[in-house]
């Protein structure tokens, strides 16, 4: 009936298919782990940014504009549930943007801390959204969908907030000394 050649070819095709499915499943698991790690890093940076804003809002002896709004936005972001997170983080971003025009009046160390925290949020959000994009791209392919290689995991969602206006502040004398700004520290040379 079947010759040995057909049997060898069938076994070879089965091995190739099994290897491809195993490779794809492993890659998908790694991408989901990458999304989870990026989510944890993003959460940590968002908490850090809210803490920096709260620290600035609770500073004594400084004429800080809209102090109550800053404190309220920071506390709301720190206590926000995952479903309300985007709204709370947008409020923090708007509060930081409101400080940008009056940064000369603010304590320099608090501005530097807030500026660095805002830059780190921007970077962490980009890493997270890249991981989500890669995972969604692989899961959208035909064979991973048909074989349900993702199992019962939820499809990861992008995290989009308005963080376009960073509070950019250069430390005193850094322009003359050539010291990098907090945003420049994270760029590749």
From TrEMBL:
Molecular function terms, GO-annotated = hydrolase activity
The annotated region (Disordered) lies at: 170-189
> Which keywords appear in this protein's UniProt record, sorted alphabetically?
Hydrolase, Membrane, Transmembrane, Transmembrane helix
- Membrane-spanning intervals of the chain: 6-25
What protein does this entry describe?
NUDIX hydrolase
What organism, scientifically named, is this protein from? Jatrophihabitans lederbergiae
């Amino acid at each position: 009936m079947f010759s040995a050649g057909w049997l060898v070819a069938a076994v070879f095709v089965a091995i190739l298919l099994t290897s491809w499915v195993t490779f794809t499943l492993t890659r998908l698991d790694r991408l989901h782990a990458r999304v989870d790690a990026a989510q944890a890093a993003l959460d940590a940076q968002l908490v850090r940014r809210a803490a920096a804003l709260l620290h600035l809002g609770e500073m004594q002896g400084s004429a800080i504009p809209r102090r109550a709004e800053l404190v309220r936005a920071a506390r709301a972001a720190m206590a926000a549930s995952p479903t309300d997170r985007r709204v709370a983080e947008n409020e923090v971003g708007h509060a930081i943007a409101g400080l940008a025009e009056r940064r000369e009046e603010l304590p320099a160390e608090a501005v530097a801390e807030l500026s660095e925290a805002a830059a780190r949020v921007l970077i962490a959000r980009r890493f997270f959204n890249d991981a989500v994009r890669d995972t969604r791209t692989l899961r959208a392919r035909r064979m991973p969908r048909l074989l349900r290689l993702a199992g019962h995991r939820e499809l990861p969602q992008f995290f989009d907030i308005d963080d376009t206006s960073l509070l950019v502040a250069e430390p005193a004398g850094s322009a003359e000394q050539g010291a990098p700004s907090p945003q420049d520290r994270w760029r590749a040379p």
